[in-house]
Design a protein that fits this description.
This protein is mostly helical. It is built from 11 helices and no strands. It has a single domain, classed as Ferritin (Up-down Bundle). Helix 1 packs antiparallel against helix 2, helix 2 crosses helix 4 and helix 5 crosses helix 6. 27% of the residues are buried. One of its GO terms (molecular function) is ATPase inhibitor activity.
Length: 264
């Protein structure tokens, strides 16, 4: 550490970075699995609320699922950045390199920026080591994203604002569709999907789609889930209900990316 002039205190020693990165990766994987299982359970509970007509309660509670989904996505990105730093650890540990390598600046600054928005203690250690290594000015720039090295996909997933109303509606529609539960805005949503598929448009085109009095046919929900506008897995073989729900929720990620204001 030529720019510090003395050896670093033990907890800031870059030699500890490798261990911290490995631990952050494994803990991140663990939290993602735990939260994914939890949100699956919460989706089922929300469907039960819809089935007994408690739409207002479901509308409030779905925000927790959305928040957890966004957090899981943030952890996935953090995990990738940690993997990258681990792969190029020799560049970071090279005492001759006192400035951050251009190929690592996005990952390094993103980890520093995102650390306070996670429950990963290891990430706090990683942040402190990186700030010590590259200096306080670099650390400040990363925390405030002064130079815009931290991409929008990280920044938006660290925000704490409540999700937009449209995203809440979309989640409830997808949950109602997957679990065949009644929801007042479901038919309108299915009609929008059908129109989109017909016009071969992107999913994010439907900004105001379908708000003008659409005639809602009196069909049972179970039938409407088989309308032509619904995405089905390739090769429409019969699949188990659980698999079908999983594939639909996977499709959901891409569909909601636009609403969260970030790419998938």
């Amino acid at each position: 550490m030529s720019h510090h002039g003395k050896p670093p205190p033990p907890h800031l020693n870059p030699a500890r970075l490798k261990t911290a990165l490995k631990m952050a990766i494994s803990k991140s994987k663990f939290i993602q699995e735990k939260k994914s299982a939890l949100t699956k359970q919460q989706r089922r509970q929300l469907a039960d609320l819809l089935k007994v007509g408690k739409e207002s309660s479901a509308t409030i509670r779905v925000e927790n699922i959305i928040r957890d989904d966004i957090y899981i996505e943030l952890l996935e990105l953090i995990e990738l950045y940690c993997e990258l730093l681990l792969a190029r650890i020799s560049i970071i540990l090279d005492p001759a390199r006192t400035t951050c390598d251009a190929s690592l600046i996005e990952a390094v600054q993103s980890l520093i920026y995102a650390a306070p928005h996670t429950e990963l203690n290891e990430l706090t250690s990683i942040r402190e080591i990186l700030v010590y290594k590259y200096g306080p000015d670099f650390g400040r720039a990363a925390k405030e994203n002064t130079d815009n090295f931290v991409p929008a996909k990280i920044v938006t997933r660290c925000q704490v604002e409540p999700p937009p109303e449209k995203l809440v509606t979309l989640y409830l529609c997808e949950i109602a569709k997957a679990y065949e539960a009644p929801y007042s805005k479901l038919q309108e949503y299915l009609d929008e999907l059908a129109v989109e598929e017909k016009d071969d448009k992107d999913d994010d085109d439907n900004d105001e789609g379908g708000s003008g009095g659409i005639k809602v046919p009196n069909e049972p929900i179970a039938e409407t889930t088989d309308e032509p506008g619904i995405t089905k897995p390739a090769g429409a073989k019969p699949v188990s209900a659980a698999k079908k729900q999983q594939s639909e929720f996977d499709d959901l990620k891409a569909r909601f990316a636009a609403l969260k204001g970030v790419g998938p």
